[in-house]
Write a structure and sequence with these properties.
It holds the Pfam family Mannitol_dh. GO terms for molecular function: oxidoreductase activity, acting on the CH-OH group of donors, NAD or NADP as acceptor. This is Mannitol dehydrogenase family protein. Residues 50-298 form the Mannitol dehydrogenase N-terminal domain. This protein has helices spanning 9-13, 58-62, 64-73, 91-100, 134-141, 171-178, 186-200, 216-231, 233-242, 259-267, 308-333, 338-343, 345-359, 371-382, 391-395, 398-416, 421-433, 451-461, 466-469, 472-475, 482-498, 500-509, and strands at 23-24, 49-54, 81-85, 105-111, 114-120, 123-126, 147-150, 206-209, 248-251, 270-271, 276-278, 283-286, 303-304. It is α/β, with parallel strands linked by helices and 510 residues long. It has two domains: 9-306, 3-Layer(aba) Sandwich (Rossmann fold), CATH 3.40.50.720; 309-509, N-(1-d-carboxylethyl)-l-norvaline Dehydrogenase, domain 2 (Orthogonal Bundle). The chain has a five-stranded parallel beta sheet, sandwiched between helices. Strand 4 (105-111) and strand 5 form a beta hairpin. Helix 6 packs across helix 8 (216-231), helix 7 packs across helix 9 and helix 13 (345-359) crosses helix 22 (500-509). The longest helix has 26 residues, at 308-333. The radius of gyration is 23 Å and the shape is globular. The termini are far apart.
């Protein structure tokens, strides 16, 4: 698949190349890629679109787009090329970068045994980003588009924290309900496109969420149908009856791209404005529910299953919740990377104890994998020093990630009578992190869409721990549970009086 390795990341950093030695990534230079870097073997000029993907971040390009590229390398799925899209002004920068290199991407696989790279080409265009999303609506309304997929982060689905339903009071949702032809959101644009398709007789498309949400297809259905119902009940019924919204589980650790990653791709001999690094692991489990056809992703490693839920539960609870177990204490302790957190004996022991005693009891095995073996796999993946995944990135948007990944396990533990002590400590560590300073006195930069309110709650909780749990948009009725509240308060007090590591050691002893 990948042609060869070049050594470790540190070794590659020592390989400096002059600008004149670099291959500037484009269609015209694919035949001049450095030796050992495989590019598209298919004729990109012959590709035709079948997918619009909203949210062209690193994860999509290292995961879903990679699976499609691998199919195209086999001469298949050539009529399923991707058109990229975004709905916010800040997406324009990524659009400009990708269009400048014909939507090609260099993927760099980082592994302790060596670094490999390839150039993928399954994306062929990027929709202009305009207020009102007219170009996006037109792209999705085109009859050749049969799948509209998205990676908009788990916090981007306008969920009501109290009910789990669509937050119809949100200003963006209210705007789209009253301005259905000029929507702000991806979901409003999908509704507008589906109206055009229905009226033109083009039929529905499959709406495919690729975000880390339990029942992500169900949640996407809720957003699209629920929003349509606010402005056009008849259209909502048509969408409900004709469109499909498959659930899926996606998995690959993909760090953010910064100066180090751009230097790394240059060391390989390529000038790429938007390279992507990733680990040597991918998993994609998809419910086989596509109303207008689909690529055969299973031929290149994806799994079609009618039992996505158990795969989702294992991954979201062990990997995603696992990230929150270590990232917040890592920030407090001034540890920059996830692999660095796993090198810390106290944090690694904390991770394993919480996983085995408080999370694994609420996870079912899946074919070929038990919860315990999956924990061991995650330990190896998190410990990979070649993946420079920052604690800051993993801790970002805790106000979405804790309710999505950690709090459901606490609820299950309370309901079943299993321990929630370590998970209560996880929440106390998050509260301590949100106070905004590390234990060495340095400042933690804002790292959440509601950072200011989190800081205010964290400062109040220093004297009155209940102030943190009273954030009902996050904890709902969990603050009313006496056992959880008492455990949280005790851990937060210990963290403030003796330090985060003392709290971890106390948990390990008990």
């Amino acid at each position: 698949m990948l042609q060869r390795g070049w050594g470790t990341m540190d070794e590659l950093k020592t390989d400096t190349r002059r600008a004149g030695d670099l291959v500037t990534l484009s269609n015209a230079t694919l035949d001049r890629l450095p030796a050992g870097i495989e590019g598209p073997s298919y004729d990109r000029a012959a590709l035709t679109p079948g997918i619009v993907h909203i949210g062209l971040g690193n994860f999509h390009r290292a995961h879903q787009a990679w699976y499609l590229h691998r199919l195209m390398q086999q001469g298949e799925a050539l009529d399923w090329a991707i058109i990229g899209a975004g709905v916010r002004p800040y997406d324009s920068e990524m659009r400009q970068r990708l269009l400048s290199q014909d939507c090609l991407t260099t993927l760099i696989e980082l592994d302790p045994s060596g670094t490999t790279a390839e150039v993928t080409g399954g994306m062929i265009d990027y929709v202009p980003i305009e207020e009102g999303n007219g170009p996006l609506i037109a792209a999705m309304a085109a009859p050749e588009i049969r799948i509209v997929a998205m990676t908009v982060t788990e916090g981007g689905y306008y969920l009501d924290p109290a009910t789990g339903g669509l937050d119809t009071s949100h200003p963006d949702i209210q705007h789209d309900a009253t301005n259905p032809d000029r929507p702000r959101t991806a979901f409003g644009a999908m509704v507008a496109a589906l109206r055009r398709r229905r009226d033109a007789g083009h039929g529905p498309f499959t709406a495919q969420s690729c975000d880390n949400l339990m029942g992500n297809g169900r949640i996407l259905r809720q957003a699209v149908v629920g929003l349509a119902r606010l402005s056009d009940a008849e259209l909502a019924e048509w969408i409900e009856a004709n469109c499909s919204f498959p659930n899926s589980m996606v998995d690959c650790i993909v760090p953010a791209t910064g100066d180090k990653e751009r230097a790394l791709v240059r060391a390989l001999g390529i000038d790429d404005a938007a390279p992507v690094t990733h680990e040597n692991f991918r998993q994609w489990v998809i419910e086989d529910d596509f109303c207008a056809g689909r690529p055969d992703w299973d031929r290149v490693g994806a799994t079609f299953s009618n039992d996505v839920h158990d795969y989702e539960l294992m991954k979201l609870r062990i990997l995603n919740a696992g990230h929150q177990i270590i990232a917040n204490v890592g920030e407090i302790a001034g540890i920059d990377t996830i692999s660095g957190c796993m090198e810390n004996e106290a944090i690694a022991a904390f991770f394993r104890k919480v996983q085995h005693e408080e999370i694994a009891p609420h996870v079912k095995p899946v074919p070929g994998m038990t919860p315990e073996s999956y924990i061991d796999l995650i330990v190896r993946r998190f410990s990979n020093p070649s993946i420079v995944d920052t604690t800051r990135r993993v801790a970002f948007d805790g106000s979405s990630r804790h309710p999505g990944f950690v709090l459901p396990i606490i609820r299950d533990g309370l309901a079943s009578g299993t321990s929630i002590e370590g998970l209560a400590l996880v929440e106390a560590l998050w509260a301590r992190m949100c106070e905004g300073t590390r234990e060495n006195g340095t400042k933690i930069a804002p790292n959440d869409p509601i950072w200011d309110s989190l800081v205010a709650a964290a400062e109040a909780a220093r004297k009155r721990p209940a102030a943190w749990l009273e954030q009902r948009q996050i904890y709902a009725d969990l603050s009313e549970n006496a056992a959880f509240s008492a455990s949280f308060a005790r851990w937060l007090d210990l963290i403030w009086t003796k330090g985060a590591m003392a709290a971890l050691q106390d948990y390990a002893r008990n």
